Every structure is written in structure tokens, then in C-alpha cells.
Amino acid sequence: MRPRVILHMMSSIDGRITPEGWPASADRDEVYEAVHRALAADAWLVGRHTMAEFAQGAPRPISADGPYPRQTCKASAAGMGPYAVCLDPSGRLHLNRDRVNGDAVVAILSDAVPDDHLAELRRDGISYLFAGAPELDLVFAIRALRAEFGVETLLLEGGGATNGAFLGADLVDEISLLVLPIADGKTGTPTTFDGNRLGASRLALISATPLAVDIVHLRYHLLPRGDPGTTVGDSRRRHWR
Questions:
Q1: How is the chain classified by DSSP, letter by letter?
Q2: What pLDDT does residue 236 have?
Q3: Structure confidence at residue 68 (pLDDT)
């Protein structure tokens, strides 16, 4: 069994998720965090680049006294969650802290991570688990989160590549998307999903709710692949005036 995965993101109306050049808005961030809390997940997950934004100070690498077994390590202060989970297959993230936004950090690593990095994580009180090598096995990773850390519901809040990898592994159950009243149009910037190897997925609308500062909260179920329905682009197209 694996956790239920809810993608929770905020984007411009054209799907961009990088806010450089957008008008500043504290209200926008408050809306996002309020929905994050309301979803009541046991953990949230991002990629290495996103988690690096929370690092404190310069890297402080250390040397391991010896080899460490490639098995899950739960820090003594990690508690019962919620958890801040990071995909870091190469062990290149140096957080220098054991909590982000009050949540205990869990690193998902490949078996190829050096022992020196494991020593650093242990020093900093960061929990970790292993999920294959050289690439991460996302199915195994989130099943381990459930088995080892009790995660039943996981919020996916990564960059476009991380989100696309989960969608491409058929691991997204629901989408929670906050659509901002912003038209971006920048080229070459990340979108909500990048690099989905399975192709387009069909969705079923749960709700569309207007929120503060002209934000719309869209919620969708992911339909099983092969679910019958109208094919996008068939002869029964609508023509918009």
C-alpha cells in the first residue's frame, strides 16, 4: 500500500509556477498555506532544489567514521509528523537544520549516497530512507514513507520536474491547484507538470471555489488510465467565439 498523493500547487493562469516578476502578495502566500493546512496531510514532498531554499548557512560537511548500512534511519526527535520530505538521490542537499516550517525533515536517498553525507544527516538530526540506485524508485519511496513513517496522505509540492515524475509514474491521485489572477507567458520556465512520460491524463472535477484576492481553487480526481470518455481533440469540438 502507498499513501494517497495530492498535488498541491499554485500557478499563473498559463501554468507557470516560478514567481519571478510577479506582483508581490502576502495574501497569496497566506491563501496557499491555509489550503495546505486544510488538506491535513501527514507529509509534504519537494525536490532538492525547492528544499534548498530552506537551508540555513553554508554547507558543513563531515567525514564518516565508517560505513553505514543502507537502511532507514529515523531521527530521535522526528516524532510522528507531519514531515517535510525531500528527494535527494545524490546527497547534495545541506540543510543544516532538522525541521522546515516546524515539520521534521525526511530525505529520500539513493543507495549511492556517500557515507559522509549520511554522517552529516545524522549529525543534523535528519531522518532518511533509501529508494534504489542510481535513480529513485518513487513507488518504493512513498510506500516506505507509509511503512516507516506512517504517512497516509502526502502533499506533492515540487517543481515541474518532480511533479512530472510522479504523474509519469501514475502516482498522483488528486490535484489541488490554486490558479492566480496572473498571466505570465515567460518561455523556458517550469510549469505545474514537466516531463510526464505517460502522456496526458484525464481528470474529473471535484470543485471550483473562488477564494480571496481573485484566486480560484480547483480540485480534480485523476481518472484511471483507460477510463472511457470523450477523446480530447475528437470531431465533436466546441468552437469558441
A1: ---EEEEEEEE-TTSB---TTSPP-HHHHHHHHHHHHHT--SEEEEEHHHHHTT--SS------SS---SS-B--TT-TT--EEEEE-TT-------SEETTEEEEEEE-TT--HHHHHHHHHTT-EEEE--SSS--HHHHHHHHHHHH--SEEEE---HHHHHHHHHTT---EEEEEE-S-----SS--BSS---TT----EEEEEEEE-GGG-EEEEEEEPPTT---PPTTSS------
A2: 33
A3: 96
**Residue indicated by cell numbers 515567460:** 186
Q: Which three cell numbers stand for residue 44?
A: 509534504
Q: Per-domain residue ranges for the chain?
A: 4-222
Q: What is the CATH number of domain 4-222?
A: 3.40.430.10
Cβ-contact 35, 212 below 8 angstroms: no
5-22 confidence digits (pLDDT tens): 999 999 999 999 999 889
